[in-house]
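Help! Submission page says 'invalid entity' but I think these are all valid:
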Amino acid sequence: MLEEIKALSAQIKSDLSAISTPEELEAFRLKHLVRKGTIAQLFDRMREVSKEDKPLVGKEMNILRTTAQSGFDELQSGVSKKEAKPSEDLTLPPRTLYHGHEHPIMQAKARMEEIFIRMGFTIATGPDIEDDYHNFEALNFPPDHPARDMQDTFFVKHGDREDVVLRTHTSPVQIRMMQSHEPPIRAIMPGRVYRNESITARSLAEFYQVEGLYVDKGVTMAQLKGTLFEFAKAYYGEDIKFRFRPSFFPFTEPSAEMDITCFLCDGQGCRVCKQSGWLEILGCGMVHPNVLSNCGIDPEVYSGYAFGMGIERTQMLAIGLDDIRLFYENDMRFLGQF
Ligand code: PHE
């Protein structure tokens, strides 16, 4: 019996050393390690061994089994490592690490706030869900003004009330500021606004505006222009050219819109500026006396200016983007550039 164990042990060792493929390893297992294999068969014959020889033979048998099993295990892990090799392609380029950062629109908002804070403005906010009074009426919109139309305004169901809307601009925050503060008031009011419009390359149904308001004794249109020109230079660069154009808003009189030279064609005329060489960046004007009165401020004593601009639009112009929707498509290739 001991002779046979020795012979099988030699056989197993030579078999192990000859294995070089997973198939050969499997053949080894089937030959030696399974229930009907060589080792198990020898174990079966332990019955024939005499009582006094049993401890020694048993010990040798156990050594044999352990040697075979551990030799097999070792090769198997080696073989499976070899098998794993092809999935590690060392010629692949490394993975890009993405660093999280603020959304470009929030970065733009922060830059605008910083510029206006430097000029002495504070920051105020108001609710996104407004009533008709703050969004329209107090701002001197006549009852039949088209901006109240279903086409532009999202109405909100709120009990029996029919005057609850998602604010269509940040101007209602002007009203809230003037109702709750004594002049002088000098604040900017950033926030989200909502319009029932179709989403296109140039317009969104939900976007950000920054409103500005300065109310004091003797506030003039010249101060408005000076402040906005300083802002435009700080935001777009010293070389920027701008112009004021007459416009109309119910809550300002006189009203104007401010344009800057088109960054794409440098004022030559192109598709983005519709061949005009100019791009509109904001609406502004002197606060209408009716609006001051609506808020309990005497228009004989005080005057004020106000302005409002869309952040997405402003940012589009600053970076030369021709589709506003890119800001909200969450494509990392786009967002990662800011
Ligand atoms: N609220 C106006 C708009 O959304 C912009 C504006 C603000 C104009 C303040 C004048 C003064 O278009």
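Support: the input was valid. A stray whitespace character was the problem, and the output above is from the cleaned input. The radius of gyration is 40 Å.
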